[in-house]
Amino acid sequence: MEDFSSKEEKFEQWRYKTDDEIRLNTVGYLLQQAIELALKHHLELNGIDYPRTHDIDSLLALCAEGESEELEPWAETITAMESKTRYIKNYRLAVRKVVQIMKLADDLFKKIEKIHEKDNEE
Prior knowledge:
The N and C termini lie far apart (76 Å). The protein has 4 helices and no strands. With 122 residues, the protein is mostly helical. The protein is elongated and about 70 Å long.
């Protein structure tokens, strides 16, 4: 028979695991939001109207050729991060996906910044 302290330890282990998963889902949600807002900002600076959407694929379709092709294979996954992390109770993101998308997002942010730095110089 288990004693109280081992049940308490199991609960603490579960709680820490759950806290980490919640944090990872929060990171995923915020990462999607950052990508979405960066794309919308980029489109707006280029005078391109964009739909009121969270769909990354539809925003990428409005970007010029070569500006975002690295993100295209991930667009559906990134879009799902917004809704699934908010509305599906037991949804859990994979760390490897979040890390990969973070790298892609960083590249996107740098590319957008470089494009608009050139525009400001002209």
